[in-house]
Amino acid sequence: MVEPSVPAERWHPITRVLFRFGFVYLGVGTAGQWLVLALLRTFGAPHEWVVATWKWWALYPLNDWVAERVFGIETALSYAETGSGDTVAHWVSTFTWLVVSVLIAAVWSVLDRRRWEYVRLHGWLRLVVRFALVASLLLYGVIKVLPSQMTFALYRLVQPFGDMSPMSVLWSQTAASEPYEIVLGCAEVAAALLLLVPVTSTAGAVLAVVALAQVFLVNLAYDVPVKIFSFHLLVLAALLLVPEARRLAAAFAGKAVLARKAPPLLPSTRGTWALVAGQGLLGLWLVIATVMEGWDAWHLYGNAREKSPLYGIWNVTEYSIAGQAIPALVSTEPQPASPNLASERLRRIIFDTQHGIHVQRMDDSLLSLPATVDPDGRTVTVTRDLQGQWKLADLTFERPTPERLLLVGQLAGRSVRMHLELVSLDRFRQLNRGFHWVQEAPYLL
């Protein structure tokens, strides 16, 4: 059975040109890319595949040519995953996609100038945009609901506030209140779930715009390196609301609003039902896979992670190198960026996770180093790299009492001996202040 044809609309020429540009740039270059990458990730594709897919979707090698010829960038662009979405490669790729989209839209407008509307193609664009938003909002929402994006870290308790970057301040502020982080994630997850269902997709888009506007604002205000990504997410969510603008305005004005009727994306009833079923299965897969991914992250490096066997903040009370005691002299001069740990005294060692330690030097600067603690062999192994190929320290430990620790061994090729004392976490206001319904005055200490 074939659905009756819907009377063709007559779009304004400018609307048609803008749609062609938006379809290429936002549909293919942005939403399509994110959806494919999300599917590769959730289906467990090798990390190299994900990186290679993004590299070619970033229009490599054209992107490299633009970087060199247009922007004068002489070094090769890096497409490696660094956790930043604002790398040089990202910025150049954004520019390249903009130019390519303009050119394709221009050629498309000439070749297809007799086409009056793109109603059905617009429906497909909305479908891809919806699921790209669902995949992104689900991921970022779940890792807040199961806190693993902003996590509590012990070393923040002894890091001077002035040494923290704006992004570190934002991360620490959010991690300081787990319920607050969870509520932020719930808003993103709710928007994603509403976007999954066509009849609630408008409500989901409204909630997504509110949530993503806040995300984009803090990314700008705190210099978080996902400005390009969050801006485009916000644009995609707003794009879904453009056809609904008049209906939304009427609804907010308290007027009755009729449901918008969109033509089917496929001409047959059987095809339409198959598409609906496919959307349901895809949505269900994204939800299940993302929750599983978030659960693993929560237990691996989130707030549910296993703690180090020596968990705590340890003050170094005595320190000797090659049998010579090194006095605890607090330094006001900044230490070299690449420290020679073999010849300087340490102030604190923070054991938090099972995969690393933080070393605080006498000027209060912090070093993050990969490390493993073997409670059975009573050893602490510190390396310079995550692969453990460059060993920095090989120490044995004794713990005569729960509050005292002795570390002895080799550090940067020299014999060291350290006596450490555990700092009580109850002394930190951030942990002992608690919650109060009644307060006679603001507590700003």
UniProtKB/TrEMBL annotation:
<feature type="transmembrane region" description="Helical">
    <location>
        <begin position="273"/>
        <end position="295"/>
    </location>
</feature>
<feature type="transmembrane region" description="Helical">
    <location>
        <begin position="17"/>
        <end position="40"/>
    </location>
</feature>
<feature type="transmembrane region" description="Helical">
    <location>
        <begin position="189"/>
        <end position="217"/>
    </location>
</feature>
<keyword id="KW-1133">Transmembrane helix</keyword>
<feature type="transmembrane region" description="Helical">
    <location>
        <begin position="224"/>
        <end position="242"/>
    </location>
</feature>
<keyword id="KW-0812">Transmembrane</keyword>
<feature type="transmembrane region" description="Helical">
    <location>
        <begin position="123"/>
        <end position="143"/>
    </location>
</feature>
<keyword id="KW-0472">Membrane</keyword>
<protein>
    <submittedName>
        <fullName>DoxX family protein</fullName>
    </submittedName>
</protein>
<feature type="transmembrane region" description="Helical">
    <location>
        <begin position="88"/>
        <end position="111"/>
    </location>
</feature>
